[in-house]
């Protein structure tokens, strides 16, 4: 089961997805809310934190979550504060009951990862792609529009039209034809 523990939070945060199952994992921790309390309400324990990237709104709660549950944080770059274990491009990670392919997808930030499970039909898109073809900002440090376009294209080629759910770093998850939103993001990123 996938639940956004940041839903309804009225402060500056990203989404933070608690995925329960064989390996209970928090995908991004969000910021500026009681993530530990939310996790304790919904799960008996936490096995790991997996990060899409290390912008402050995605990792603000990282240290408190790691301390409370004595878990490691997995991300692309262990030189980033709080990242304990590196996930390489095209490595596989277990999240909940499913295996996810990690895709290094820079453009919004150099250490950005998306996680795709073909068998489950699920994509964690971080801040690369959002609902209705929106896409991640490239005006922040490490932002690069050309790299972002290549990353969106890579996700479009890796995922397929059978994709059932896309969980994004901000805004609502997409559960109706999410592949269409990926295609729209690729077109929109080229236009603006």
Automatic annotation (TrEMBL):
Q: Output one GO MF annotation.
A: hydrolase activity
Task: Report any Pfam family annotated for this entry.
Answer: Lactamase_B
Identify the InterPro entries for this entry: MBL_Glyoxalase_II (IPR051453), Metallo-B-lactamas (IPR001279), RibonucZ/Hydroxyglut_hydro (IPR036866)
Listed SMART domains: Lactamase_B (SM00849)
Q: Which residues form the Metallo-beta-lactamase domain?
A: 13-170
Name of the protein in question: Glyoxylase, beta-lactamase superfamily II
Cofactor dependence is on:
Zn(2+)
Which terms are listed as keywords in the entry?
Hydrolase, Metal-binding, Zinc
Please report the organism this UniProt entry assigns to the protein.
Haladaptatus litoreus
* SUPFAM superfamilies xrefs: Metallo-hydrolase/oxidoreductase
């Amino acid at each position: 089961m996938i639940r956004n523990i940041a839903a309804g939070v009225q402060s500056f945060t990203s989404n933070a997805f608690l995925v329960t199952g064989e390996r209970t994992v928090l995908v991004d921790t969000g910021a500026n809310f009681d993530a530990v309390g939310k996790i304790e309400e919904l799960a008996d324990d936490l096995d790991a934190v997996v990060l899409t990237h290390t912008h402050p709104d995605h990792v603000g709660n990282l240290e408190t979550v790691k301390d409370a549950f004595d878990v490691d944080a997995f991300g692309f770059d262990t030189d980033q504060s709080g990242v304990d274990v590196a996930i390489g491009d095209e490595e596989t990670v277990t999240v909940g009951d499913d295996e996810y392919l990690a895709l290094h997808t820079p453009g919004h930030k150099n250490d950005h990862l998306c996680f795709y499970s073909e068998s489950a039909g699920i994509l964690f898109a971080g801040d690369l792609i959002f609902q209705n073809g929106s896409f991640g900002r490239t005006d922040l440090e490490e932002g690069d529009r050309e790299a972002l376009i290549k990353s969106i294209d890579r996700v479009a080629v890796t995922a397929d039209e059978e994709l059932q759910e896309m969980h994004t770093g901000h805004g609502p998850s997409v559960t109706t034809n999410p592949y269409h939103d990926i295609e729209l993001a690729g077109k929109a990123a080229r236009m603006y």
